[in-house]
Amino acid sequence: MKMLEYALQYHTKGYCVIPIKRNKKPYIKWEEFQNRRPETTEIETWWDKWPSANIGVVTGAISNLCVVDVDSDDGQKALIEVVPDLKPDTQSPSGGYHYYFVNENGQGNATRFLKDVDFRGNGGYILMPPSVGENGNKYTTLKKFTREPLPLAVKKHLESVCSCVLKEENCNLRANNNQTNCNNVQQIATIGNKGTRDDDIFRLANHLLKGGMDAITAYNYVQFFADRCTPPFTSKETRIKIESALKRGEIKKRNLTSDIREWVSATSGNFNATLCYNEQHLATKEDKAKARVVLYRMVKEGLLEKNINKAGWFRKIEEEAPEIDIFSEEVEFLKLKFPLALEKFYRPMQKNIIVIAGTQDSGKTAFLLRFAAMNMNRGMKIKYQSSEMGSMELRNRLSDFEDVPLKDWGNVDFRDCSSNFQDQIIPDGINIIDYLEISDSFYQMGGILKGIYEKLNKGIAVVALQKDFNSDLGRGGTFSLEKPRLYVSITSDPPAGAMAKIVKCKNWASKRNNPNNQQCRFKIRNGNEIRMVSDWNYAPKKQKG
């Protein structure tokens, strides 16, 4: 079952569903969904855009759900000491546990209310099975979700950390935004109890410095609160927290510099600062100011040229191009075969990149496996990098080939790979990447394909990309179109099969037959046999207006 189907099931059960990245951060601005549940069409749009997105559920009143989140064995022991008979609902990829309970009015969030145990209420979210962690393991269901009332013993421990966590004021001392509505010193003094003082004091220091306060003034404010922790911080410990927060700010600044330089390297021609802000998701005045500093520094370094006639516009200065020696080697085409008889349009050459951009379930993997089967005995090594199939699933797919014995697949070097594909390239062989996944920062696609191109010598690379139904181009858009010499778009169209379209073709097999914009319909049988059901013909031109 696909992630979208699971997401819709949770939605049907009354949960507020949002799409989450592997790093546990939402793909979307999720704050509005603390107050409203998304429509079914919104969920479908999200998972059409990010098919492998993890499933997040917003906790609190909106989902009638609060969660006790246990991060370690020590946390599990601490919780069992409080409530011995609790059974977890799900297990996380790292070995932790989630316990689901009915939401109560005003419940907020609390960090480490027991050792390695957090609480998620209003203003929080959690990941649901079968979401996948950064280590590749899945969240798993341990028992049927019942959502019992929150045990009284758990409530008491929450109240002992922050007396307002379970009240309607919901001051949320440990919430992600670290805001508080508590106005009396007694409630303020509750920060730093029950093993949370390190996190609380560091967050306070980080927010003060991030807001522009100088280090000495920030130290005085932090020490005021540090004196009221249990046990209190020493002045030396407070100074260490300030220094750590300063280092964190410098690291973030360096990361922003690196991200902008990488973005510029993947850009060509003219661009303006606003485009840079949008692509880098920079919203604050502070981040935009830092971005401008980076761009103008690149102007001084001779990497960019400022447009004197248009404020905020820049042009990337290209390095001196390497010389092309047209006399050292004879022109040599690679004698390869392709599904859909693409070789009658396109003659592959050394160092070519071929892109197959397809919608979900359109046959990308079938195309690539059939391409590998058709070229096993052509004197070139084949490496197949798969980001989706494990050994059992792959063996099952290969066993379905009626015309290729399973033993013959030993001629293909299969690798489990989901990133850094260029590091696995064999320079003089056939490289197949199934598929190059990218979920955001699509401008990076051009740089990734460029990295693959630079690793090639006499070989080629065939790269699959995910694409949307309303576009011929894969994720990365025009950034994915620059390096390939052949670019084929395939769109599923059940029950008629699928439609293939040649979006870009260089190295024509016949100078009299322009293959660009030609398309054909095909069907896939048994997961690997690709049968054309119509000839290649030019796609009809779209009517204006």
Report the uncertain regions.
Answer: 162-190
Helical segment count = 13
Rg, Å, rounded = 28 Å
Strand tally: 22
| Proportion of residues in extended strands | 15-25%
Helix content, binned percent: 25-40%
Structural class: alpha+beta
Q: Report the principal-axis shape.
A: globular
> Major beta sheet, specifics?
10 strands, mixed
What is the rounded distance between the termini? 40 Å
CATH architecture of the largest domain: 3-Layer(aba) Sandwich
The domain count comes to: 3
Mean pLDDT: 82
CATH superfamily of the largest domain: P-loop containing nucleotide triphosphate hydrolases
How would you describe what is shown here?
The chain has 545 residues and is of the alpha+beta class. The protein has three domains: 3-178, Signal recognition particle alu RNA binding heterodimer, srp9/1, CATH 3.30.720; 234-316, Arc Repressor Mutant, subunit A (Orthogonal Bundle), CATH 1.10.10; 339-538, P-loop containing nucleotide triphosphate hydrolases (Rossmann fold, 3-Layer(aba) Sandwich), CATH 3.40.50.300. It is 29% helix and 19% strand. The protein contains 13 helices and 22 strands. It has helices at residues 3-12, 40-49, 73-82, 152-161, 185-188, 197-210, 215-226, 235-265, 273-279, 285-300, 364-374, 391-399, 444-455, and strands spanning 17-20, 54-58, 66-70, 90-91, 97-101, 110-114, 117-120, 125-128, 140-141, 270-272, 304-306, 313-316, 353-358, 382-386, 412-416, 430-434, 460-466, 486-492, 498-505, 518-525, 529-532, 537-538. Strands 13, 14, 15, 16, 17, 18, 19, 20, 21 and 22 form a ten-stranded mixed sheet that branches. The chain has a six-stranded antiparallel sheet with strand order 6-7-3-5-4-9, covered by helices on one side. Helix 12 links the parallel strand 14 and strand 15 (412-416). Residues 162-190 have low confidence and may be disordered.
